Amino acid sequence: xxxxxxxxxxxxxxxxxxxxxxxxxxxxxxxxxxxxxxxxxxxxxxxxxxxxxxxxxxxxxxxxxxxxxxxxxxxxxxxxxxxxxxxxxxxxxxxxxxxxxxxxxxxxxx
Length: 110
Hints:
Elements: E1 2-4, E2 13-19, E3 37-48, H1 52-67, E4 73-74, E5 77-92, E6 98-109
Parallel strand pairs: 1-2
Antiparallel strand pairs: 2-3, 3-6, 4-5, 5-6
C-alpha cells in the first residue's frame, strides 16, 4: 500500500512518501534556463510488519533501489544522483508495527 503525504489506512505493510521542505531555487547567471539540474527532497516512511528483520530488509531494499536510480531515466526525467540517508529506525507505532525512515534528495536533469 502506497500513500502520499498522509497514511490514509493502517495496513501492516505500507510505504508513505512525504515532501520535505525545498530549498530556495538558485538561479544561475543567464536565468533559470541555464541551469542543468533541479532537486526534489522526500522522506519515505516504511511501515512494515511486526518482524524486525523483515522491516529492516524492506527499508534497505528501498535504499538500494534509490541508489540504483543514478543515471536512469524515470518518466521523462534523467536522475543525475540520489543522495540517501538511512534507513533510520524510528520505532514501533501504537499497533506494534515497526517503522523506518529513508530521506533522499533526488537531483535530476532539467
